[in-house]
Amino acid sequence: MPTSTLADTARGGPGPRLRLLATIGLMGAAGLCAALPPAIPPQVDTSALPAAPMPWPDENPYRGIALAAVIGRDAFNQTCAVCHGPDADASKSPAPDLRRLGRTCKRVRDTTLKQRCLQDVDVYFRNSVLKGKVKVGVRHMVAWEGILTPEVIWAIRTFIESPDAGKH
Ligand code: HEC
């Protein structure tokens, strides 16, 4: 004898299947929200770097600046490593390995094309960081806009694309 029938649904109840789906949905959302660590800006000093240009440029203004990569590593480990892995080595982490971003650009020989390729990645990177990530209605990463300064965001990008990324 089923505990719930079509008649239950007709009486206005949501029916067992819908109730179950709703419960799983709530559990899932609550679980993920609880797992999101608080978005706290890293304690780093970017004053020795040139001010990041505004409005947002399409290209990382710190590309190739060694100090930016050093500061970026520190900021990354304080703020991003919990999901994207220590020193950007995500081999044991739940979130994507950010070292992959732009890896194909490095193989492009033509310098103009290579620059355009890197610009695309820079724009994707900054937009992902500023807006965060939501998948099927569930937030996987907070929007870092207003939490991280542009200097910190570009310093992190510089570290991730440096040969030191992934090295502990
Ligand atoms: C709470 C965990 C969490 C934290 C903390 C976090 N991220 Fe993410 N991030 C994710 C997840 C999960 C994704 C993948 C989401 C998706 O696939 O839609 C992601 C995606 C990204 C992407 C896009 C990657 C791609 O391959 O498409 C970038 C860039 C990124 N994060 C940068 C950062 C930076 C920089 C920080 C630190 C300031 C950071 N994230 C902190 C969880 C996190």
Automatic annotation (TrEMBL):
It holds the Pfam family Cytochrome_CBB3. This is C-type cytochrome. Gene3D superfamilies: Cytochrome c-like domain. PROSITE patterns: CYTC (PS51007). Residues 67-164 form the Cytochrome c domain. InterPro entries: Cyt_c-like_dom (IPR009056), Cyt_c-like_dom_sf (IPR036909). Signal peptide: none annotated. Keywords: Heme, Iron, Metal-binding.
